[in-house]
Description:
Transcription Regulator spoIIAA, homodimer, 2 domains, mainly alpha, two-stranded antiparallel ribbon, elongated
Amino acid sequence: MPDPHPPRHSALREDLLAAAIVSVLLIPQSLAYALLAGLPPQVGLYASVLPLVAYALVGASSVNAVGPAAVLALMTLQAIAPLAGQVDPSVAAVVLAFEVGLLLALAAVLKLDALAALLSAPVLQGFSVGAAISIALSQLPALLGSPAHGVHLRALLRSWWEAAQAGPAVHLATAAFGLGSLALLLLARRHLQALAARWLSRDMAQLVARSAPLVVIAAAIGLAWALAAPSHGVAVVGRLPTLHVPLGLPMLDAGLWLALLPSAALLALVTFVSSFAVAERLGLQRGEHVDGRRELAGLAASNLVAGLSSGMPVGGSFSRSALNADAGARTRWAGAWTALFLAIAAVLLAAPLAWLPRTVLAATIVVPVLAAAEWKAFGFAWRYSRREALLMGLVAAITVLHTAEWALGVGVVISIALMLQHAARPHAALIGRVPGTEHYRNVERYATELTPGVLSLRIDESLLFVNARLLPGLVARRLDAFPDTRRVVLQMTPVNRIDLSGLEALSTLQSVLRERGIRLDLSEVKGPVLDGLRAAQWARWFTGRLYLSHHQAVRDEQGMAP
Amino acid sequence: MPDPHPPRHSALREDLLAAAIVSVLLIPQSLAYALLAGLPPQVGLYASVLPLVAYALVGASSVNAVGPAAVLALMTLQAIAPLAGQVDPSVAAVVLAFEVGLLLALAAVLKLDALAALLSAPVLQGFSVGAAISIALSQLPALLGSPAHGVHLRALLRSWWEAAQAGPAVHLATAAFGLGSLALLLLARRHLQALAARWLSRDMAQLVARSAPLVVIAAAIGLAWALAAPSHGVAVVGRLPTLHVPLGLPMLDAGLWLALLPSAALLALVTFVSSFAVAERLGLQRGEHVDGRRELAGLAASNLVAGLSSGMPVGGSFSRSALNADAGARTRWAGAWTALFLAIAAVLLAAPLAWLPRTVLAATIVVPVLAAAEWKAFGFAWRYSRREALLMGLVAAITVLHTAEWALGVGVVISIALMLQHAARPHAALIGRVPGTEHYRNVERYATELTPGVLSLRIDESLLFVNARLLPGLVARRLDAFPDTRRVVLQMTPVNRIDLSGLEALSTLQSVLRERGIRLDLSEVKGPVLDGLRAAQWARWFTGRLYLSHHQAVRDEQGMAP
Lengths: 562, 562
């Protein structure tokens, strides 16, 4: 196995190279995500400098590329848009980022990293698809040069309807820039790498394909300059303010903080879940354990700093993190170098960037966002579990038709309900010995031998309140078919936990069986479960025997008192 | 084993005897529970006639004694008291009963009997204790002759404080009747049976002890008559209206129905859970399977009829059902006979009952309610699970200090959170062979043998969204100690279900292991789990082997393709 941690001295060179590549991608992304969130483009640059340094100082993953991200920008838009009349969006975005940072810090202190588990795979995948569609739809007016805008589909359609009545719904020059660059980007993504590979090496071909967006952006800038596009009504990025990041405390307004709190909580959850998933996956490939609490702390620091430096909520970006890892980043300092390169480039490139049509930025968002969405997840889910597939579809639909917050909230509640529903109706198997082994399996699925007088059952669930009441009835129904039973032996391997309700059910089962002259025995009770039973002094009421293996239990060999 | 179903011809005589005994208990209880709910005493009688006949026609259990019950009366009080200014309590009680009936009928049609599982043992036991204290406190003013009243502790204390400022907080003559009968009932419950057993047979002694409340009531009636108690300010039951049950549709007022709906939903849940628990327990002892949906239908019919016949919400009473079973009831018709005897007795005994001081009825409630509460449950829970014990205490406290509805709501939410929390942090055991057997157990708890190159793990939880993300990390950490591993074998007996998130985690684990040159195999995958995996065509991506038993997996014998 190759050593995953070669000596440190070469890390600087590799980090610098990765940072250079990532920062090239980050410049247009940061501008575009700020526009997506309904903020001035420079906010995206502000969010891409100091927050990256903060993550490098505190964060857990060596490859996680922090900064503005597409889904977070969409959620930021939906959070701050309802307050548009009362407070400047940039002010609201700063408060939101600071609140996200505070909540992540609180989660790190209270060890709440397990809360990430609330977002199940179908919810995340449905959300991914729904958010991609929402983002693409939100960029459609910009692509076509329409002034329409809206937080979700209904608002967008209403705004578009109003705009269409006031004047032309499409601005032809803008649409030419937008749809032209969209077509080029789609073609490049589909065919460029294969085409380039005919003449170039595989690595070079990949590099060419990856730099397509840069070429499109450079060409658009040149064309806009040559045609004096702004004088034809094409909106351009415009002269960015000189990059000295405005520092300051977020506005201390209790009403504003309270209004943004629910959105901040969901943003914090999504930020952590999406960043941690990428960091952990890339980490496992590199033989690196990413610590959840430290990742929380790193993301908390980034967002707090974003809130202090006129930024917007930030998190790990899937596309940039993967690029970072591919490009050979070795330590978290690659992120800090990325910030430095971005700052230098923003200063040097301010003049040409001013000519970049905003519609081209919209095109550069739409293509990768639609490509990264997990479109195939639904078909896969449908084959495995209809209910989870429907949940996925519902979450996607709510994300598109309403808001990300509602979609995630409904998704979490339904995930829990589905889990409870399964746990509430356990599968109960009558088990028999697989001939020639000491192994016991379901008599309905395998050829097995039964031992007369002994009823062997395996209840395939932990004994918890959601199912405990069923236990005596399940056993009693099995007994109807075996009236000569003298012992019931429960194989306890599937029982991972017994809660108070389960303990009561076990005691009820024992007394019901005893009234019929039948002894209740247990086999293969797991260590932690047995510890709990002993702590509760179950020997006071449990009168059966315990066996290390089910085979011994059926033969009644080496039984122990409780 | 004795035949649990002896021939039918003798059932009538036994049912009649049980009915006679139960109806004697039911008369004072029905009056007292109506007063507890803040209703005129005759409402209790109305709720004890036709609803019992409805249950006999539709219900599931042969021994469940339906009618007014203490906890349901408390919840009825809390539901209708806030509407006191707007609508007559009797009218509200009728609407409430009808709504409870409709919801139970809906639950029966939609097969929602599994919802009963939402109330875990700690919630039910905490509620039982809290409700007993609440009921006892609510009867305290009646026992002492104070006009104070209140839905919960705060209202009661405030009302008492106001009453104490307006006049004497205790009415001496009433308190003499109340506390006197309370003392006699407590003494009888503690000592009478043992005392009587010195001279009488065991059965006769039990009969004497059980009839103590009747003797106290009869003596109180006689004393109240002899001393002309009402003229000294002692409140008596008074002349009940002739028992012809007023029939009629409940008031059709959308606002009232809507206001009572949340209370009706929780009353329906508590009615079903408490009645079904008693019916099922008594049924199992008699070798009788009580069907949940049919029990829902029976309780629905009783409550609908209670709503049509000027009654109040009804359910199975634990004390009367146990008495019914003890007294030898054989069929559901014992309930109908009980209703008949009650109707006859109410007519014949109307004259003496009119003299019964209400304070004595309060005493007859307080003693059995306090005795039946599960006081010892807390100590038992504390030894087994601190968290569940604290939940129990919290539910009891909210029941006493606030309302039953809040207590149950908070209890359900915390029960689910505790369950998720446990599932989110699975126990992972490194397992080895118990020498001389084909059985594999935790190497930290048993003397076991390991096979070089093979890492055997048992993840003690279903692979669900709440824990799935941890799986690759858990396995990776175990690998650190065994760098020479060539195969990882997961023993799947504790895995009762794999959801979509779990499936994804399994696939991630496999690809992470493959990058390290390690094969992932599974042993003892249960039938339903394997069916699901095959339906999702996992053979497309799973490259390991499947083994019937873990012993075969470790020896790599008889491995199957997925």
